[in-house]
Amino acid sequence: MASSEFELIKQHFSHLGSIRKDVVLGVGDDCALLSPLADQVLAVSMDTLVAGVHFLVDVDPETLGHKALAVNLSDLAAMGATPAWVTLALTLPEKNDAWLSAFCSGFGKLAIQHNLQLVGGDTTRGPLSITVQVHGYVPAGQALRRVGAAVGDQIYLTGTLGDAGLSLKALQGELPLDQLSTLRSRLERPTPRIGAGVAMRGVAHAAIDLSDGLLADLGHICEASGVGARIELSLLPLSIAVATYIKSTGDWQIALAGGDDYELCVTVPPHQAAELEQRIRELKTPLTRIGSIESGDSIRVIDTDGSTLQIEQRGYDHFRKAPPT
Ligand code: ADP
Ligand code: MG
After folding, report:
1. Contact 155/272 with Cβ under 8 angstroms?
2. How much is the pTM?
3. Would you tell me how many other CB atoms lie within 10 Å of the CB of residue 172?
4. CB within 5 A of ion ligand 2: which residues?
């Protein structure tokens, strides 16, 4: 590695995020040294964002720094884990200090919000690509998994559906841009639902974060748990912008299959539903019941007129009206 690259690491990455007691040695040596807390399991997850695939090359770097970390934190939230450490592998086309400072600002602010310390990484030259690995704690036996949903469970969602998908449509020129300013932050600066995930420990049976769309991600819970689900269009939590768009187009796909929302979808046994609602209300996180778990292996979507749309496990491509029974 060229000396300028050591300078780059020192300047931008040697102190990013919080300073934690369970970090014996952070950035700067061959390895980080970490001292995990007793009685906790480590939850570890990694995501890569590639320029031109996951984001536009000219995206604002501050926003990109936020999103690269947020999508990883969302995975910790979905397991009920508390963030602790992060590593960052960056491939950069050039050394651009202004770009790096802005990226680190977006990344660092979110890291500090969640008491997360950057403890290591790798820096290489090439087409822009960002890989983030997060590590979090969850008390032994309390992680929220995709497996565990049971027939009769109530299905709940944090936040609203389809904002990121609608924003993407607008940015791609498929829609007028008038509502974009509020929606755009939902696409570019998602809020990882860490507090909600922790609060769901001990009450939720199963959980997942919504990255690929409600049907696809709820489908993962159903498949892992060996169950089906029933959701009602009239119950889906929608922002005004998405509700207005659906009203004028009839296009429910934006809510059912739009990706990048990073909300949590959980299933809860009926006797714990009130407890879940209270815990999440205390956090001031929006929470909405959208349906229930039932036997079978498909997701039934109940239309606003009461008819059933049958959704196969594989997702929205297989979206079709059920034959009359
Ligand atoms: P080595 O050659 O021993 O693998 P490097 O020269 O790649 O080490 O990295 C030197 C130090 O800087 C290591 O502690 C590494 O974890 C850290 N580092 C390199 N790139 C990054 C980055 N993008 N973010 C955080 N730490 C980094
Ligand atoms: Mg080394």
Report:
1. no
2. 0.92
3. 8
4. 30
Q: Given the structure tokens 């696809």, which residue do they identify?
A: 216
First to last CA, the chain: 67
Q: Could you give the C-alpha distances from 290 to 173, 193, 194, in angstroms and in order?
A: 31, 18, 21
88 lines ligand 1 (CB under 6 A): yes
In one letter, which amino acid is 150?
A
* Nearest residue to 73 via CA among 60, 61, 62, 84: 84
Alpha-carbon distance values, 87 to 32, 47, 55 (Å): 10, 11, 20
pLDDT digits (tens, 9 = 90+) for 49-98: 999 888 888 889 999 999 999 999 999 999 999 999 999 999 999 999 99
Pocket test for ligand 1, best of 13, 122, 125 (most atoms within 8 A of CB): 122
| 130 touches ligand 1 (CB under 6 Å) | no
108 pocket-lining for ligand 1 (C-beta < 6 Å): no
Q: Provide the edge-to-edge strand list for the sheet that holds 287-294.
A: 206-209, 264-268, 154-158, 287-294, 228-232, 299-302, 308-311, 320-321
Backbone region of residue 66 per phi and psi (left: phi > 0; alpha: psi in -120 to 50; beta: other values): alpha
Cα–Cα distance measured from residue 94 to residue 259, given in angstroms and rounded to the nearest whole number: 31
Tokens of 96: 């651009």
Tens-place pLDDT, residues 173-230: 888 766 677 788 899 999 999 999 999 999 999 999 999 999 999 999 999 999 999 9
Q: Whose CA is nearest to atom 24 of ligand 1?
A: 121
